[in-house]
Write a structure and sequence with these properties.
Strand content: 25-35%
Distance between the termini: 33 Å
Helix content: 10-25%
Order of helices and strands: HHEEEEEEEH
CATH class: Mainly Beta
Largest sheet: 7 strands, antiparallel
CATH topology: Jelly Rolls
Oligomer: single chain
Number of helices: 3
Shape: globular
Number of strands: 7
Number of domains: 1
Length: 154
């Protein structure tokens, strides 16, 4: 089991089995709360590169985080959704990273660091910042997986 899997296993053992990710909202509740709070529509992926056993959302002070997790395989994906009105939005594009382009022409950045447990892609659509993270369980996450998730946002 890798470090990310070990952390998630510990978290799962501590948290309520009915709510293993600790999220306080379903994805639909989280989406509704975000859209109501910021008076804007947001997008969610129709593709996840594994079969999640747990999905949940947490509306934080400055963003919405959606978590996808497979308890058996320990695969993890996070989606952060940040409205332009929040100061965190200005941090969508941190200095390093490789430029990528989504199918619709949206430009983003791909971040890979062998010392981190997740690879990620950041981009902006309709004045909302999106950060997609996928856990590296057994090695680097193919950029194609991150792009496929990003391109599936609806």
């Amino acid at each position: 089991m890798n470090l990310l899997g070990a952390v998630m296993a510990i978290a799962l053992s501590i948290l309520n089995p009915q709510n293993p990710l600790g999220d306080n909202l379903s994805v639909n509740e989280a989406k509704s709360a975000f859209e109501s709070k910021y008076n804007t529509k947001m997008l969610l992926p129709t593709y996840v590169p594994f079969t999640p056993t747990h999905i949940g959302g947490d509306l934080k002070k400055t963003m919405l985080r959606i978590r996808y997790f497979n308890e058996k395989t320990q695969h993890t994906m996070l989606l952060d959704i940040i409205p332009k009105t929040e100061t965190l939005y200005d941090q969508i594009f941190i200095p390093h990273g490789d430029e990528v382009k989504l199918i619709d022409g949206t430009k983003g950045k791909y971040y890979h660091d062998s010392n981190l447990a997740l690879d990620r892609i950041h981009f902006v659509k309709n004045n909302i910042g999106y950060r997609i993270y996928i856990g590296k369980n057994n090695g680097p996450v193919p950029l194609s997986d991150l792009l496929k998730v990003a391109d599936s946002l609806r």
